[in-house]
Design a protein that fits this description.
157 residues, mainly beta, eight-stranded antiparallel β-barrel, 11% helix
Length: 157
């Protein structure tokens, strides 16, 4: 009985380890952002178009689930910030995946209250094994928030 359990655990561990794969890559694209500032009961907002560039890692957990941390430099007219999304990726098919997770942003131009939290969700499509296209919406939180649509492409090594 012990040998049977040991064999079952060994087989399960082998299958799980084979399903895990880590790929690294770079990505860039355009962002359509809206910055909102709430102050003294009034809200001011402005929409701008900018760009983002950075890198990512896709860490396979199982055949359909992976974790994708990213580090992105985002430039918008009056806001430059570093964004660190940690996205859960669920593969609906071999090419198509759904993304969701938190994003920690560090505003480079702010004098105080530099850290902001966003919630991101979107999708990615693998054109080839190396090239993907992706789109996500980032929902900003707090009195000063930057929300927007990020549309880009990535290259996996």
């Amino acid at each position: 009985m012990k040998k049977l359990l040991f064999t079952a655990f060994l087989l399960a561990g082998t299958v799980f380890c084979n399903a895990q794969e880590t790929k690294f890559g770079v990505k860039a694209g355009v962002d359509l952002a809206t910055a909102k500032v709430k102050f003294a009961g009034t809200t001011t907002s402005a929409s701008e178009t900018g760009f983002f560039v950075g890198g990512f890692a896709n860490i396979g957990i199982s055949e359909q689930f992976s974790v994708q941390p990213e580090v992105l430099y985002v430039a918008i007219k009056d806001f430059n910030f570093l964004s660190v999304p940690i996205l859960a990726k669920y593969s609906v098919s071999k090419e198509f995946g759904i993304l969701a997770g938190p994003s920690l942003n560090y505003l480079l131009d702010a004098e105080e209250d530099e850290f902001k939290l966003n919630i991101d969700f979107g999708a990615s499509y693998d054109v080839t094994e190396e090239i993907e296209v992706n789109a996500k919406y980032s929902l900003g939180m707090g009195d000063v928030s930057i929300s927007g649509i990020f549309i880009g492409a990535g290259y996996k090594f």
